[in-house]
Write a structure and sequence with these properties.
The protein has two domains: 356 residues, no CATH class; 73 residues, no CATH class. The chain has 437 residues and is mostly helical. A hairpin with a 6-residue loop joins strand 3 and strand 4. It starts with a helix and ends with a strand. It contains 15 helices and nine strands. Helix content is 57%, strand content 7%. The strands form four sheets. It has a three-stranded antiparallel beta sheet with strand order 4-3-5, with no helix packed on it. Strands 1-2 form a two-stranded antiparallel ribbon. Helix 8 packs across helix 9.
């Protein structure tokens, strides 16, 4: 709630809603699970420190006017990372679906091995609760897609568990949440904690900025707003710095919440502020009832979230359109599964930048020759070149001309066709801000 308010007040987008995202959550969990027991006081303390350092990195990048660096990173990095994170999330939740109690491992393969070893001790009641919840989510989504299917499904799972008394037969429940505002504190901050968490904090900062800026720009294509990447960096940085002081872990832009915010008619950032305040009041009212929420129900809902993380349509487009983006996506995906999560982000980002520089560093050279009838210079390999005078044209990139939303002119010139993803020019125009041609 606090990060959403701060990001709305200091960010550039009028529609972006910040909050916890699945991709960042899995990075934080994978980073800290080997340092402290999840849910313990030390684990929460490390998460707050990691969030604070993440905010410092993001704020420094924004103040230094380095927001343009994100333009050199392909969105395939985010696609590959979120797809790999979806598998990690699913693997970590299977133990709750089957009612097992082994300790989760940060590695994908080790989690599957632990599941295979302990599967014989599964709890049939937990499996039943998970199956009922999963079925309810799917049915509600098919019949009433506008209804809050996940919330209704968890209520059904809670009622079923409580009415049958299964929480006394090995079906674990979440437990009561504190019905009070988050306290203001930041403890445990030391030089040792900075050394320990600086590297993963930088990875979380990069991932969060890529998510926030890409979501803000995608909505700006519909709203017509001009996005300032540097200001968005500052807003995200301040939201994580202030949020860490109120027991919030690292946040970024949420596409679902931001899309709903725009579709429901939000015109200014005040919509995000009012939504956060109302959410705080609602949470204080329902906090005692969360005690009855069974872990298998929550795990089933998280499995649905993990499935929705995988953008199959976008993945198919990447495979069809670009070999380089495909390689970036596949390498990032495999790195998430078999390497440390922060290194997966670094690998995908550096590979994306290297491929971009490789393409733009060697422009194609085309020979221009006079057309016999009109005498205009054209590119035609079948015509003979003039032996006395040679004219060449340098082609910087062999891609469709695509202008970025934050550099697009306020009024598009005549002859311009607006599309969902880019502004294609049918006649020459100023190319300021063009990254890929």
């Amino acid at each position: 709630m606090i990060p959403a308010i701060v990001a709305a007040l200091y960010g550039s987008s009028r529609h972006l809603i910040s909050g916890p995202t699945t991709a960042i959550s899995i990075v934080i969990f994978g980073t800290l699970v080997g340092m402290a027991e999840p849910g313990s006081a030390h684990y929460i303390e490390l998460a707050m420190i990691l969030t604070f350092i993440t905010g410092i990195f993001q704020f420094a990048l924004g103040v230094s006017r380095l927001g343009g660096l994100i333009n050199f990173v392909s969105h395939s990095v985010v696609t590959g990372f979120t797809s790999g994170a979806a598998l990690l999330i699913a693997a970590s939740q299977l133990k709750h679906v089957f009612g097992l109690t082994f300790k989760n491992k940060p590695e994908f393969v080790e989690n599957l091995q632990q599941l295979a070893i302990n599967i014989g001790q599964y709890n049939p009641r937990s499996v039943t609760i998970a199956a009922v919840t999963l079925t309810a989510v799917i049915v509600i989504h098919k019949l009433k897609p506008r209804w809050p299917g996940m919330l209704i499904a968890m209520v059904i799972g809670s009622v079923l568990t409580a009415s049958l008394g299964w929480n006394g037969y090995g079906v674990r429940v979440v437990g009561a949440l504190p019905a009070s505002p988050p306290p203001f504190k930041l403890s445990g901050f030391s030089l040792e904690s900075i050394k320990l968490l600086a590297t993963p904090a930088l990875a979380v900062a990069i991932l969060g900025l890529m998510e926030a800026v890409s979501i803000a720009r995608s909505i700006a294509l519909h709203s017509g707003q001009r996005i300032d990447g540097n200001q968005e960096f500052i807003g995200q940085g301040l939201s994580n710095i202030v949020g860490s002081l109120f027991s919030s872990y690292a946040c970024s832009g949420s596409f679902t919440r931001s899309g709903i915010n725009y579709q429901t008619g939000a015109k200014t950032a005040a919509a995000a502020v009012f939504a956060a305040v109302l959410l705080g009041g609602i949470l204080l009212l329902i906090a005692p009832y969360v005690a009855y929420l069974p872990m298998p129900s929550m795990a089933a809902v998280i499995l649905v979230v993990a499935y929705k993380l995988v953008n199959f349509h976008h993945i198919g487009d990447i495979f069809k359109v670009s070999r380089s983006d495909t390689s970036v996506m596949v390498v990032t995906f495999l790195s998430v599964l078999f390497l440390e999560l922060e290194f997966a982000i670094y690998i995908g980002t550096l590979l994306s930048i290297w491929l971009y520089l490789k393409k733009t560093a060697k422009p194609a050279v085309l020979t221009k020759v006079p057309e016999p009838i009109t005498r205009k210079f054209v590119t035609n390999q079948s015509l003979s070149a003039c032996p006395q005078l040679g004219i060449v044209a340098y082609v910087l990139c062999s891609y469709i001309l695509c202008r970025r939303a934050d550099f697009a002119p306020k009024s598009a010139p005549s002859g311009t066709k607006q599309t969902h993803s880019c502004c294609i020019q049918h006649k020459p125009h100023r190319l300021s801000g063009v990254r890929i041609v």
